[in-house]
Specification:
Helices cover 47% and strands 15% of the residues. With 414 residues, it is an alpha+beta fold. A six-stranded mixed beta sheet has the order 2-1-6-5-4-3, with no helix packed on it. Strands 13-15-14 form a three-stranded mixed beta sheet. A two-stranded antiparallel sheet has the order 7-8. Strand 14 and strand 15 form a beta hairpin. Helix 1 packs antiparallel against helix 3, helix 3 packs antiparallel against helix 4 and helix 5 packs antiparallel against helix 6. It is elongated and about 105 Å long.
Length: 414
């Protein structure tokens, strides 16, 4: 194949023994040689980037018929724009190539690039793929609708729990509050009250303090709340069984057992949390692999083992409480709230059982939103199921808030 001849400023490589010249308006003119690649066409002709070339097999001379007012290009393909790279055509000369778009995550910022450059981890190509742009940060913020709704619900739950606590303190000497250990009711209300604002730690830009506190504090508060529910249930069972003649449970009547239950459960969770913070504390992290063109700001749990250990302990504690409350549900309702506790623990366990598949099937900020929803739902379940009936009697039906009424319900059933 003849590989070249040139006009001034162009280059060409001629095969040995082959002469090159241009024929313009019927006049042959001898030119200086530089490089241009010519390709033989079907039927004996050649092409040079839009110029027609006749190949004379006899004289072994290449002719170009100049039909334009500009010089021929020294390649057989147009230049590749920024954002593209050259892909050499297989089996053809190096000057013949296709222009292909840079791969995802890469750019080229000049024409006729042979390779594309990969963007840094915190950047992403623009639409034309000729410039790396900072990735969009993603997290559950207070300003977006979902974050605003969840934070509003959290604030409302906190105010509602505070109102219930004030009602209980004001009417602390009434029979319906004293019937089921007033102190435990206060402890439970305070823990539920704190669980609502605890969910706010999951909303907003993750920081070091947020990551340290949110999982551990949430698990510890819920463990304390559930242990209070368990202590209340045990108190009811002991108090009722101890009334039977010659009962061995009389020596256990009092605050020793409930306090031991609460301290043991809470200390276990705090111990796990403390070891977690001391060894592999959570920290804010940037996840560049979760989404294309977006950077997910999240809390890296440091050690998933400690994280799951706290969750498993909380789940086992809730399951034990549910079983004990279920076994005590048939005790006289005038003396206990076991039926309300049973229903509240059913709501609690149902929320967290449904949380598992929802948590695993979502990504990004929606995973955080699912956990916040579970915290708010389970807190509302405990507050509503255990304390709403008592508030109803205190506020709406104060005549039922008497010892005679409570004893009357028991005597009526017997």
């Amino acid at each position: 194949m003849v590989q070249g001849f040139v006009r001034t400023g162009l280059s060409s490589r001629m095969r040995k023994g082959v002469a090159g010249r241009l024929e313009e308006k019927g006049h042959a003119s001898q030119l200086g040689i530089s490089t241009i690649n010519l390709q033989r066409l079907r039927g004996g002709g050649m092409t040079c980037s839009g110029w027609t070339v006749r190949f004379d097999n006899v004289a072994e001379t290449a002719y170009c018929n100049i039909q334009q007012n500009h010089a021929p290009h020294s390649v057989c393909s147009e230049s590749c724009a920024a954002g593209q790279r050259m892909l050499i055509r297989e089996g053809e000369p190096p000057c013949c190539y296709n222009c292909v778009l840079c791969p995802e995550g890469e750019v080229s910022n000049h024409t006729d690039a042979t390779d594309c450059m990969k963007c840094p981890e915190d950047q992403w190509p623009n639409e034309s793929r000729d410039l790396c742009m900072p990735k969009t940060e993603e997290y559950l913020s207070f300003s977006e609708p979902l974050g605003a709704i969840l934070s509003s619900v959290s604030t409302f739950g906190f105010l509602l729990a505070s109102s219930v606590l004030c009602i209980f303190i004001k009417h602390g000497d009434t029979p319906i509050i004293k019937a089921n250990n007033k102190t435990l009711s206060y402890f439970l209300l305070v823990s539920i009250l704190l669980c609502f604002p605890c969910s706010l730690l999951f909303i907003g830009r993750p920081g070091r303090v947020h990551c340290w506190l949110r999982q551990g504090l949430f698990s510890t508060l819920f463990s304390f709340a559930v242990s209070c529910v368990l202590a209340k249930t045990i108190t009811v069972v002991i108090a009722f069984r101890a009334t039977k003649p010659n009962s061995s449970l009389r020596k256990w009547v009092g605050s020793a057992i409930p306090n031991s239950v609460i301290l043991t459960c809470s200390k276990t969770q705090v111990l796990i949390y403390g070891i977690w913070l001391a060894s592999y504390p959570p920290f804010p992290d940037r996840n560049n692999q979760a989404f294309r063109g977006r950077m997910l700001l999240e809390c890296n749990e440091g050690s998933p083992s400690f994280h799951y250990c706290m969750k498993i302990f909380l789940g086992l504690l809730a399951l034990v409480t549910l079983v004990v409350a279920f076994l005590a549900r048939k005790l006289p309702s005038g003396f206990n709230e076991a039926q309300h506790i049973t229903f509240s623990m059913l709501v609690f366990t149902s929320v967290w059982l449904s949380f598992i598949p929802a948590y695993l099937s979502t990504t990004g900020k929606y995973t955080v939103a699912v956990e916040v929803f579970a915290i708010l739902s389970s807190s509302a379940g405990l507050l509503g199921c255990i304390f709403a009936p008592k508030c109803y009697i205190i506020i709406v039906r104060p005549k039922m808030n008497t010892r005679e009424h409570l004893m009357g319900k028991y005597l009526l059933k017997n």
